[in-house]
Predict the 3D structure of the following.
Amino acid sequence: GDSVTQMEGPVTLSEEAFLTINCTYTATGYPSLFWYVQYPGEGLQLLLKATKADDKGSNKGFEATYRKETTSFHLEKGSVQVSDSAVYFCALRGYGGATNKLIFGTGTLLAVQP
Amino acid sequence: DSGVTQTPKHLITATGQRVTLRCSPRSGDLSVYWYQQSLDQGLQFLIQYYNGEERAKGNILERFSAQQFPDLHSELNLSSLELGDSALYFCASSEKAGAGSYEQYFGPGTRLTVT
């Protein structure tokens, strides 16, 4: 079945450092890919998405490119801030079928230190 | 604010009991999804309703059931609770009729603690 694998955390960075959180997927067809962020004590917020190969999703300085050849959707940010500290989830929505359920990775905790 | 509301925010109950979690989707959204987030299982899809009908089932236990009402709000019923049912339960909604958009918007969650 479809699945998502993302890098283990926690990831600890200093403010203004470059961030990469790796995400790879296994799916048939052409899934849509998402990054969600969960701040402490809150629900999940959609950060960015890409619905077809080579699409780049971007939001709030974060970017991720849908790479079908490597089945990857790595999250990047050029300069992180303390306020980016949160848990980041990579997710996919399968192609076709009757449901739009999301399949999530295990989440990666990011801690940014001043 | 995603526009999805969930009540209660916290719930503490004993093993063997039954609880009901409530979700109100964003205005106009026809689909409601329930997810469970636990330390050992991560974030897992439980069940989806679309306009009152069950559309898909995931890893939902037989002790759990859900329904979506004519006003589109949904309830997740958990019965014969066990310690392992302690988790954060999220509701998400999507699919405004005719909009062709399937992005899911999540509520703040209900934290269930079974003692």
The CA atoms of residues 12 and 111 of chain A lie 5 Å apart.
